[in-house]
């Protein structure tokens, strides 16, 4: 029945097209015979069959043009019957990770993506160049609880550089009040490459970020910048260290405190992961499953947000795309982890939160995940991101990739392609994310009891 309707529709179009061609040809022939030839003084030349020859030659152009219009009209009116059968469906075959060439899907969400290794040195702002004395001072301040009201909490309390891979391994940070905060403590490793800091991205530099925790009543609880300056300035060894770092004997200032902390944090770079070795030319650095996971990470679109050498659109290097909505409203899995409650930059009335895109460097060591620290397993975190950000279906059934959906506006079904990730896909992506782990941090993590 559908074929009969299609043929009837095509016949109607071709019928109208034929009438148009016949009318145009007749009009042109008459015009040439009655007007063009006499006006050009060709009456004698075109007597008899000559006029008909001229009319036929010009009419052929009209016919060819009309046929092209008919073809274009037919293709645009009936794409499902004319064009769609000629277009191969996207690759949906389930593949094994045993072979490094067994990559799927064949479609690529980011065909222009270029993989880069992390630079070994982070850039410093012109007003705060790094020096050994400044970095040393910042390291001392980072580990000293002198910056907290009761001298019990240091920067390192929430950002353990060794066993915690720059985090405290808690769901949310705990400060001087001993009450869990609202958000998870991000790692400080490679934070030097980030253009936006904190989960909501409210700080635009390491210096600005370092100003926050000491004065936050729930974190380190100091009452004012002046109180910090007076406490540190009362220590003769600190006065000497500040003079060495900044080249004079002026009083300790909060600006110089955060500059020293930022200078130290810019030294916290991990460019020694298997991934870095792989993109730098070591073809054996990643196994077949990790390479397939790397391809999937690009092909399904993860790199659209987690881009550049630091795997974050909020970085100083690579494409700049610092914020993204976390579409928890469309993922029951995300909502089951409470990821829709805190809206970040979006405000409480928003349907979904907006967050700074975090780096995925050393992500295998920095659980628990997300702003609320609600997800403790990296595989689960990948499932959450796949269902929220990519709209993916997690299933081992490849038949779910193409589904019919009724279009009321078009009064017909349309076949919709959707992303389906298998458990093997998830495992390979996780395997690739493990390859972003620093060798030196990995050796430290192995000592965790």
UniProtKB/TrEMBL annotation:
Pfam families: CCP_MauG
InterPro entries per the UniProt record, alphabetical: Cyt_c-like_dom, Cyt_c-like_dom_sf, Cytochrome_c_Peroxidase/MauG, Di-haem_cyt_c_peroxidsae
Keyword Transit peptide: no
Localization annotation: Periplasm
Keywords: Electron transport, Heme, Iron, Membrane, Metal-binding, Oxidoreductase, Periplasm, Signal, Transmembrane, Transmembrane helix, Transport
The protein's annotated pathway: One-carbon metabolism; methylamine degradation
Family annotation (PROSITE patterns): CYTC
Membrane-spanning segments: 12-32, 52-75
Chief location category: periplasm
One Gene Ontology CC term in the entry: periplasmic space
Every Cytochrome c domain range: 133-243, 288-437
A GO molecular function held by the record: metal ion binding
Function, in words: Involved in methylamine metabolism. Essential for the maturation of the beta subunit of MADH, presumably via a step in the biosynthesis of tryptophan tryptophylquinone (TTQ), the cofactor of MADH.
PANTHER family for this protein: CYTOCHROME C PEROXIDASE-RELATED
Protein name: Methylamine utilization protein MauG
Organism: Paramagnetospirillum marisnigri
